[in-house]
Amino acid sequence: MSPEIATEPDIAIGPDAAINPETGMRLQVLGASGSASGPHEPASCYLVTTPESTLVLDLGPGAFGALWAAVDPRRITAFLISHLHADHCLDLLAADVAAKYSTTAPWPRIPVYAPAHAAERLARAEDPDPGPPADPEWAFDFHPWRETVRLGDCLVRTAPTAHPTQTFAIRIEHAGRSLVYTADTGESAEVTELARGADLLLAEASFPDHPGLPTGLHLSGRQAGRMAAEAGVGRLVVTHVPPWGDVDAAVLEARAEFDGPVTAAAQERVHHLGQIV
Ligand SMILES: [Zn+2]
Ligand SMILES: [Zn+2]
Question: How far is the CA of 247 from the centre of ligand 2 (A)?
Answer without folding.
Answer: 18
